[in-house]
Amino acid sequence: MQQGFLLILSGPSGAGKNTVLDAVRRRCPDVVYSISATTRPRRPMEEEGRNYFFLTREEFERRITAGEFLEWAEFCGNYYGTPIGFICESLARGEVVVMDIDIQGARQVRDKMPEAILVFLLPPTMAELEKRLRGRSSDSDAAIKRRLETALDELKAGIEYDYVVCNDKVERAAAKLEAIITAERCRVRRSEYFQVVKDIVGEQGVMRQDDESAAH
Amino acid sequence: MQQGFLLILSGPSGAGKNTVLDAVRRRCPDVVYSISATTRPRRPMEEEGRNYFFLTREEFERRITAGEFLEWAEFCGNYYGTPIGFICESLARGEVVVMDIDIQGARQVRDKMPEAILVFLLPPTMAELEKRLRGRSSDSDAAIKRRLETALDELKAGIEYDYVVCNDKVERAAAKLEAIITAERCRVRRSEYFQVVKDIVGEQGVMRQDDESAAH
Q1: C-alpha–C-alpha distance, residues A120 and A133, integer Å
Q2: Which residue of B has its CA nearest to A167?
Q3: Domain residue spans in chain A?
Q4: Do B158 and A205 touch (CB under 8 A)?
Q5: Residue A2 gets which letter from DSSP?
Q6: ipTM score
Q7: I need a labelling partner for B155 at 20 to 30 A (CA). Which of A11, A17, A96, B209 fits?
Q8: C-alpha angle B109/B81/B121, rounded to 5°?
Q9: CB atoms < 10 A from the CB of A38, how many?
């Protein structure tokens, strides 16, 4: 069976991760999406089990202690985390799992799963990024400035990633992500072909006599 | 400027490299194709400079001595080689260069250009491979048997490659190759973004004070 993999999408706040992921979801119906757990209150348009799993602080902390998160963090007094069970079960079935996560989270995941594919989504320009951030009229100037500074720091972190996709047009960015998923599915080391040939040739790529004769 | 790269396509004889490459050519008009030089006689449908550069033995040997081949080999008394000039000029312009080459040649190229992307094209099954090889009615049974044995050896070599694409349907295989090209174009280390950020952050990913102040 072909091996699955975990694809992590990060990017500065305002790069447009959610819009691009919605387009990827339409293009790649066979890819599964990791859903985070959080203790922050549910917003009006959000659905339990679709946007987040909404947990109480007590339940979240119980799961931290039980080792049920691939990564977790606390922001502004709320917990956010990635349930590990769903990801491991999906990978074991050979599926591609996509998750949207910030840079600190991505580093935690990469340390635990070095085979994960890291994709960094870039806003077209910093001016565009500022416009997008300012677009949320609900936020104060100080909040916007803080978010821009964080975004600049995050831009630098992107060089630790495997791929970079510029979100100049949503469908173009989604098409690039789809291509990355297709290409990573063709990786020799994850292929059935690799498993079969390795059994014949052996780990070192050297023909072993016992395998030679066993093949007849 | 985004950096170009060299993509090498290999596969057992009969995997259908030429048919797939023709389809890739239609899908990716902005990719350039390396053309080999050879001393073998031109066949009726072949064109100078499109299928091959046809050279005399004397001229080919002069170019070997002058170091003008990325790789070269002698098969059945004829020389075959990849002119290095065209590839280096194309890469310097940031272009993607695709070349179709056998496994020995691919190894030579990878040793000289470790950044090259290696794609291995698989026939759907060995039975299909045999059918395709037998399909060339001009060849003797002994020639077919020899080619099948070579193909089996080549199948094992594929595990040294980066990607494996199964040629179950020509257009599907071409679409996967197109996706690999698109994905490799998104590699962080080849991106303009990477160059810009590296200038700010420094090679080690550590912010340098002089770059910090120079940026203001």
Answers
A1: 18
A2: B186
A3: 5-185
A4: no
A5: -
A6: 0.82
A7: A96
A8: 55
A9: 20
Query: What DSSP line would sit under B136-187, residue for residue?
Result: -TTS-HHHHHHHHHHHHHHHHHGGGSSEEEE-SSHHHHHHHHHHHHHHHHTB
Nearest to A120 among B156, B162, B188 (CB): B188
pTM as predicted: 0.83
**Taking Cα atoms as reference points, which of A157, A205, A163 lies closest to residue A183?**
A163
- What stretch of H or E contains A6? strand A5-10
Other CB atoms within a 10 A radius of the CB of residue B135 amount to: 10
**CATH number, domain A5-185:** 3.40.50.300
Mutate to test the interface with B, among A7, A8, A149, A159 (most CBs of B within 10 A): A159
Q: Look up residue A179 and give its two tokens.
A: 């291509």
Confirm if A165 and A15 have CB atoms less than 8 A apart: no
List alpha helices for A51-186, DSSP H: 57-65, 84-92, 103-112, 126-134, 141-157, 170-185
Separation in Å, CA of A191 to nearest CA in chain B? 8
pLDDT in tens, B104-137: 899 999 999 999 999 999 887 766 666 666 666 6
Q: Are the Cβ atoms of A193 and B161 closer than 8 angstroms?
A: no
By three-state DSSP, how is residue B135 classified? coil
Tokens matching residue A78: 């709320």
